Every structure is written in C-alpha cells, then in structure tokens.
TrEMBL record:
UniProt xrefs under InterPro entries: Glyco_trans_1 (IPR001296), Glycosyltransferase_G1 (IPR052622)
Domain of life: Eukaryota
Limits of the Glycosyl transferase family domain: 119-215
Alphabetical UniProt keywords: Glycosyltransferase, Transferase
CDD domains for this protein: GT4_PimA-like (cd03801)
Organism annotation: Neovison vison
Gene3D superfamilies documented for this protein: Glycogen Phosphorylase B (3.40.50.2000)
GO molecular function, one term: glycosyltransferase activity
Name of the protein described by the UniProt record: Glycosyltransferase 1 domain containing 1
Length: 243
C-alpha cells in the first residue's frame, strides 16, 4: 500500500511459486519490471541475481537465524548482498548479524582506496604463522579494534611475543587485557589516539605492559597446560565408550 500510494505499480509474487532464474527473467520481460524488492535474503534474493534490474532486500528472520548456518546458502546470500542496492533489517541485532557475516563490498573498496592514498599504511592479506609472528616482533604495538570477540588469539600471541597491546574495551578483550597492566583498553577513536601517544612517550609503561602480558600468558594460557587438559578430557571420553 505504501508504494502504490506513492504512485508505483506493484506486482506481488511468492518466491515459492518461482522455481528458477529463467522464470524470473521471463517475468521481468513480460511485465517490463523496472525494480524489485525481495523479502528474505535467500528465498527471494537468490532469484534476483544477474538480471540487470536494481533490487533491494528485506531480511526475513530465518535467513539470518537459520540459513546463515548453511555454508552454501551463506555464500549465495553474500553474493545477493553484493548486487543489492540496499538491505532492510527490522532490529539492531539482525543488522549486526548481517554485518558480521558479510563484509560490505562498497565499504571494503572505500577502505582499500583510502589505504592507497594514505602514507605509512599497508593492507596485508593472510600470512603463514611464522611470517606473521616475525612481522609482529617488529611491530611497536598490536591493535585489536573488534566490536565482538570471544578470546582473541591475536592478543595472546602479541603478549607472548612481547608486543604491547591496545584493544577495544569489549567483554572478550577486557577478560584478557587488564588496563594499564597487561595492555591498554580504549572505548573510542579519540581514546585510542591518546593511549597510543602515551605508549610512544612512556617507555616505562611499555616495558611494564610487555612484562606483565608475557607473564599472564605463561600463567593462564600455557600451551603445555592446555595440552594436558585436552588430553585428560579426551581420556574421559574414551572411558565412556564401553558404557
């Protein structure tokens, strides 16, 4: 009703009644469709790919709650979003789920373009672990700006390699980094800039953070202790096989 009230002529179709992309192509040609709006990223969105008409997506719920957990469907939905002009999420949690699952291609291109124009900034791809650790050892600090973390392996690796850590103050990071003890926690870009400058200007703070971080990893994240723990857990599983 909203669209028709604005003067648009609308054609409503159930995605379940449209079985193939070729059927969509015939419909677009027969009805001379100029644009499309799909409800459900997978069921509706996948049918609109590659037809040359602009389209938008309205997340349905099961696309983000269920289909996202199926690898093939997840890949298809990511490709749909690359072609979509926009996507509508009814809740903030749905928006966050989509942003976590699929990187915004337009934003990605903007970041890469800005990196090329910015002196002293390099964007690197994945690296073998040995090369990564060698690079980390030559860094002044490791920055973790994640919006969500479980337990950051990157932070623990940096501590183990005696590299100072600056991390966003979120629960996952704060569980590992104690502010001004094993690292520095920031809540916004301005605080990050202040703490980074402080770290550069205060060698004593850097030395203390590095020493505390290394000791923290040795005491609480020892790979030897972790190995023993997992070996014990697996033995408890073996003991229950014959029961």
């Amino acid at each position: 009703d909203h669209l028709e009230a604005a003067g648009h002529v609308c054609l409503l179709k159930d995605a379940c009644d449209l079985e193939s992309s070729s059927e969509i192509a015939r419909l677009i040609e027969a009805e001379n469709l100029e644009a499309a709006l799909a409800l459900h990223l997978y069921r509706g969105g996948r049918l609109l790919r590659g037809h040359g008409i602009p389209f938008g997506i309205i997340f349905g719920g099961t696309d983000l709650n269920e289909d996202v957990n199926h690898r093939e469907k997840n890949e298809v939905m990511g490709k749909v979003l690359e072609e979509a002009r926009f996507a509508v999420a009814f809740t903030e949690s749905m928006k966050e789920t989509a942003q976590t699952q699929w990187v915004d291609p337009v934003f990605t291109r903007e970041v890469k373009a800005r990196v090329k124009r910015t002196a002293g900034v390099r964007l690197l791809g994945e690296m073998p672990q040995e090369d990564l650790h060698a690079a980390l050892k030559n860094c002044f600090a490791v920055v973790n700006s994640s919006m969500s973390e479980g337990m950051s392996a990157a932070i623990l690796e940096a501590m183990d390699l005696e590299v100072p850590v600056l991390a966003r103050n979120i629960p996952g990071n704060a569980a590992v980094v104690k502010h001004e003890v094993t690292g520095l926690l920031f809540s916004d870009p301005q605080e990050f800039a202040q703490l980074a400058k402080r770290l550069v200007r205060d060698p004593a703070l850097e030395k203390e953070i590095v020493a505390n971080g290394r000791e923290y990893v040795r005491c609480y994240h020892s790979w030897q202790a972790e190995r023993r723990a997992y070996q014990h857990l697996v033995r408890t599983l073996e003991g229950g096989v014959g029961e």
